Amino acid sequence: MQFMLRIRFTRTGKVGQPSFRIVVAEHRAPVKGKYIEIVGNYMPARNPKIVTVDKEKISYWISKGAIPSDSVAVLLKKQGMENMDRYLLPRNHKRTKKGAEATAAKAGQEVKKAPAAAPAAEAAPAA
Questions:
Q1: Mean of pLDDT values over 76-101
Q2: Domains in the chain, ordered, with CATH?
Q3: 5-14 vs 67-68, strand pairing mode
């Protein structure tokens, strides 16, 4: 039986003082649930931010098929780990448009909208 593994954050710390563990967990496990192994820590509330990462363990789990979450991949890239770009989602991702707007947008044309309805004629004053 093969599991889909994720390398992701799990939140720890007090209210208003977040800190995160970087853990390897099954993708269906709850965020605050069971995990397989702790591979690092991240404390963004400290000044400067503290990041401890075991790069050997992360490389091992990635070789076994674990996929880092987008947030973890960004953090690992900043820490100097190689090949994290393939796990990052595009930052300029936009929702697709429907109907005529979508086909016109693909063709690079502007969509002409119907003119606004004329204001209703004023009612004749009651005499």
A1: 74
A2: 5-87 (3.30.1320.10)
A3: parallel
